[in-house]
Amino acid sequence: MMMKRLLPLLMGLLLAGCAASESATPMKAQNAKANPARSLGMENLCKERAAERYNTAAQKIDVTGFERFQGSYELRGYTARNEGFVCSFDANGDFLHLSMR
């Protein structure tokens, strides 16, 4: 008898708990806050690796974007022939890989 009274109350609490969900905002890249010496080192290493990959001089490589994610950094750039690439670094600033875009 007591279960018949508690069952609608429990069901109401369950439904109320499910309905009160927070709206999740999509994750976006955070503003890069790496120290200048570290980011300059990452940029130079990215230019060197891209120059080697695209068989050109590092001076002809243009790095245009720097983004920080939760556990990594990404630098985007272009060669003089307008070939796009992305250099990825881990949270410590160590080079991970170069992707052609």
TrEMBL record:
InterPro entries tied to this protein: YsaB-like
Q: Which domain of life is it from?
A: Bacteria
One family from Pfam that matches here is YsaB
> Key word Signal present in the record?
yes
Span of the signal peptide: 1-24
Give yes or no: UniProt keyword Signal: yes
- What does the UniProt keyword field contain? Signal
What name does the UniProt record give this protein? Answer: YsaB-like lipoprotein
| Lineage of source species | Bacteria, Pseudomonadati, Pseudomonadota, Gammaproteobacteria, Enterobacterales
